[in-house]
Amino acid sequence: MTTAEHAATAARNVQPPPARASLGAGVVVTDDSGRVLLGLHRSGVWELPGGMVEPGESIEAAAVRELAEETTLAADAADVEVLGLILDSVTSAQLTRMTAATAVRGFRGVPSVAEPDKIERWEWTDPDDLPEALFLPSAQVLRMWRPGLAIPGGPFHRYALGRLPD
């Protein structure tokens, strides 16, 4: 390989493609009774904590950061399990939305509203008694977490992740 070819290859490897996708983390956190934490968005829809994965950030780190930013709960990235990926073919015609379904196995603190412009309140909810007005990506994360939940499937693509040996 010539020097020019090597330089072209190196430059190609670090140039991002045009943005057409969005990666987020949906966070399932449960209390000692097995209830799921849901927030009532100002629009009247219930949702899980979660949000965008920042450049250079792992999915686990994003889940912990978003959980703290939205609920004030603290967790460690080591306590986050990535359950699978959900490819959303519903909510945008211009952007592919990918959500990593995550579950937090341990946390510290008491949930409180940290973004009052977005969330009215956080509530622990029995997973078998979920509200009907669920944010679609959150509903799909819950369905990935517990496939037997009575949540419509919709036109989403789901990719369950298996654990690799350490």
UniProtKB/TrEMBL annotation:
This protein's record includes keyword Hydrolase: yes
Cofactor(s) named in the record: Mg(2+)
CDD domains noted in UniProt: NUDIX_MTH2_Nudt15 (cd04678)
Recorded coiled-coil stretches: none
PROSITE patterns the record matches: NUDIX, NUDIX_BOX
Keywords linked to the UniProt accession: Hydrolase
Region: Disordered, residue numbers: 1-22
Every Nudix hydrolase domain range: 18-147
Annotated GO MF terms: hydrolase activity
Record's signal peptide: none
Transmembrane segments: none
Domain of life: Bacteria
Family designation: Belongs to the Nudix hydrolase family.
Record-given protein name: NUDIX hydrolase
Species annotation: Streptomyces litmocidini
